[in-house]
């Protein structure tokens, strides 16, 4: 990789390793995040997402590997790295005993902003995150979504170029989750780089330019949501019949279909495109058969996630496999 490539990367990590005792959590992972994009690290519980965030944000040291964050070496220039990043973890930095505004002013102090500048930034961020009305109330009275917004607002006091959001919407209701997604999109359109960990596949699908799936200590897949979806087969059209005679005739006409004689359904491999759907309908018309229901299934990130995280992780993924 040339120097220019490295400069344009907000995060460039290679061979990161971390073990606790004889448990290898990260077994040599590479992460490259271009500036101004959203990168999402996905993985089941305990996969090591928080560990990766903690390493990249200088909270803990890796056992091996290197990383440059905002152009600074993680090990040799930890202070410069810290100055360039913001971290919002699973455990909020919000102090419930003081007001939202006081939490913000405290952050401004920590970042050595002048009194005047601290007040200006606080007012601006509280307004941006729709917290002006609640600013003078103790943060303990805030809803989950408000606390999460305050947490991110506090992170932004230091104007970080890169922010790490560790499961930013876990436990939020759908409306608050959508508000958070909007906030993240606005941050990125303003040039911030976002490193996001999530257990919600839809969240990664909605927000991330690139997604990496972490499992068994390794990145098992890496790409855009579309690229990842292409990794798994499973796109199909399903036809359901109420009449067993129509079902039998359709099964004879559509030789590639997989039969389910109990449910009277036929499953035909398909990419879900208009062309392929039309072909199926044309076959049915030609044979003068009418299906009672037609549904299209295209692989989604769930399929990718379950396919990629199926075996090496014990109990949890087995449950998911059986559930499907
Ligand atoms: N300080 C520690 N000492 C020992 N083991 C640890 C420590 N921190 C993390 N682990 C273990 O490392 C593994 C990865 O943990 P980590 O919190 O990074 O996973 P995660 O992907 O963030 O999971 P979750 O989604 O549940 O937060 C887990 O098995 C955890 O028990």
UniProtKB/TrEMBL annotation:
Topology of the protein relative to the lipid bilayer: Peripheral membrane protein
EC id: 7.6.2.2
SUPFAM superfamilies: P-loop containing nucleoside triphosphate hydrolases
Main location: membrane
Subcellular location: Cell membrane
Keyword list, A-Z: Antibiotic resistance, ATP-binding, Cell membrane, Membrane, Nucleotide-binding, Translocase, Transport
Gene Ontology BP, a term: response to antibiotic
Domain ABC transporter, chain residue ranges per copy: 11-241
Gene Ontology CC, one term: plasma membrane
Record-level Gene Ontology MF annotations: ABC-type xenobiotic transporter activity; ATP binding; ATP hydrolysis activity
Family to which this protein belongs: Belongs to the ABC transporter superfamily. Drug exporter-1 (DrugE1) (TC 3.A.1.105) family.
PANTHER family to which the protein is assigned, alphabetical: ABC TRANSPORTER ATP-BINDING PROTEIN (PTHR42711), DOXORUBICIN RESISTANCE ATP-BINDING PROTEIN DRRA (PTHR42711:SF19)
Protein name: ABC-type xenobiotic transporter
Source organism (scientific name): Streptomyces corchorusii
């Amino acid at each position: 990789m040339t120097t220019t490539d490295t400069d344009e990367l907000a995060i460039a990590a290679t061979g990161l390793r971390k073990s606790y005792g004889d448990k290898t959590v990260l077994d040599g992972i590479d992460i490259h995040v271009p500036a101004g994009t959203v990168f999402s690290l996905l993985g089941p519980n305990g996969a090591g997402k928080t560990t990766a965030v903690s390493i990249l944000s200088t909270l803990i040291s890796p056992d091996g590997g290197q990383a440059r964050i905002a152009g600074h070496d993680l090990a040799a220039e930890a202070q410069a790295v810290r100055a360039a990043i913001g971290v919002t973890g699973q455990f909020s930095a919000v102090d419930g005993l003081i007001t939202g505004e006081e939490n913000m002013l405290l952050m401004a102090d920590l970042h050595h902003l002048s009194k005047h500048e601290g007040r200006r930034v606080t007012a601006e961020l509280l307004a941006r995150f729709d917290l002006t009305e609640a600013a003078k109330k103790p943060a303990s009275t805030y809803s989950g979504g408000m606390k999460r917004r305050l947490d991110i607002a506090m992170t932004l006091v230091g104007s970080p170029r890169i922010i790490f959001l560790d499961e930013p919407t876990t436990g939020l209701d759908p409306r608050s989750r959508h508000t958070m997604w909007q906030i993240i999109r606005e941050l990125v359109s303003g040039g911030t780089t976002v490193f996001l960990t999530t257990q919600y596949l839809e969240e990664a699908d909605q927000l991330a330019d690139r997604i990496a799936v972490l499992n068994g200590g390794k990145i098992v897949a890496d790409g855009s949501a579309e690229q990842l979806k292409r990794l798994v087969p499973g796109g199909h059209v399903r036809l359901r019949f109420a009449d067993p005679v129509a079902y039998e005739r359709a099964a004879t006409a559509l030789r590639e279909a997989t039969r389910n004689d109990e449910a009277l359904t036929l499953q035909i491999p398909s990419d879900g495109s208009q062309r392929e759907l039309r072909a199926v309908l044309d076959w049915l018309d030609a044979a003068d058969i009418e299906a009672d229901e037609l549904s299209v299934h295209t692989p989604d990130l769930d399929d990718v996630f379950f396919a990629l995280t199926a075996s090496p992780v014990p109990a949890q993924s087995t449950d998911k496999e059986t559930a499907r």
